[in-house]
Amino acid sequence: MNTQYKSVSKAIVATFCALVVLWSICCVALYGVMRRPPERFGQMMARVPEQVAFLVLPFETLWLHARAGTLQVGDSAPDFTLAKLDKSEHVQLSSFAAQGKPVVLIFGSYT
Question: Is the pTM of this model over 0.90?
Fold first, then answer.
């Protein structure tokens, strides 16, 4: 009976180790996907079952680290170009800095 107990406990330990390795590989793969551009991330996540991504893997923690960025307090905002609301022309952030005008960026929804 002692031999049978050792065999079962070895099988349990091996299964547990295999699951830990599989979980780690999935976490690394998900982190890699999260670091891609939003369009590519969305395409790839559309194929992942929600239960796996949100319940089994540390989705929120990985997301916060993958999208943390490198800006610090006091750093200049990266330059970007956006279309005006009426789509008549594009505006570049650096053009305001060249004019010495202050710029306030507001991100959010007002619905």
Answer: no
